[in-house]
Amino acid sequence: MRSNCAVRLRDVWKVFRSYHAQPRTLKEAVLTFGRWRPVEVAALRGISLDIHFGELVGIIGRNGSGKTTLLATIAGIYEPTKGSVETFGRVVALLGVTGGFHPELTAEENLLFVGTVLGLPLREVRRRLPDIFAFAELDGFEGAPIRTYSLGMTVRLGLALGIHADPDILLVDEQLQSTDAPFQQKALSALQALHRQGKAVVLVTHELTWVEQIATRAIWLDKGSIIMDGNPVQVVPSYLQGMPV
Length: 245
Fold this sequence. Notes:
Strand order of the largest sheet: 5-6-7-3-8-9
Shape: globular
Helix content: 25-40%
Oligomer: single chain
Radius of gyration: 20 Å
CATH superfamily: P-loop containing nucleotide triphosphate hydrolases
Number of domains: 1
Structural class: alpha/beta
Number of strands: 9
Strand content: 25-35%
CATH topology: Rossmann fold
Distance between the termini: 49 Å
Order of helices and strands: EHEEHEEHHHEHEHEEH
């Protein structure tokens, strides 16, 4: 019997190093001419949290608050600078609007490639192709190169693949906002269905009504730190009250 914990983070820091700091004075410019001066930027600051199977977690916060960095660290795309990240199950991360698709390959070829990268056997991806295209509402576009797809079509295809890839832990960044309203509601219902099946779903979004509508838990990030973690009906109003006018 598996533990109920899907994701465990302990004192996680992620520090990026920038080499583009500008000199503050003429003297400093002369003295540092031809040199790189690294500046460290902490995107995550001591994050500790557990996410459990059966939870649908909405992560909210202003631009630059660390939301996408947190998802990428959970997904293993980034190594934490300090601290530990553990995941207990197969993670499917939908972090880029293009879904990792190659623009010159057809939609079907991309699904076969990305699906196997996500851990599905090739024959299983082939079996699921009709369901993926139907969910994405892209029947008839299977043989079209991804470069001919609109942004919304590409996002729908990526989300459909992620939802049909049998994830134990599904991480979804802000792509859903690039699709039309009917598809958004269908995708949100699919995310709810996954969490009812006992999966762990983590959604980053600026659509606060979605968090109130479907999330079982909300986490408010600001400047890389957790400000509030709890019931969405409490976290979302607190976040709105804390935003500058």
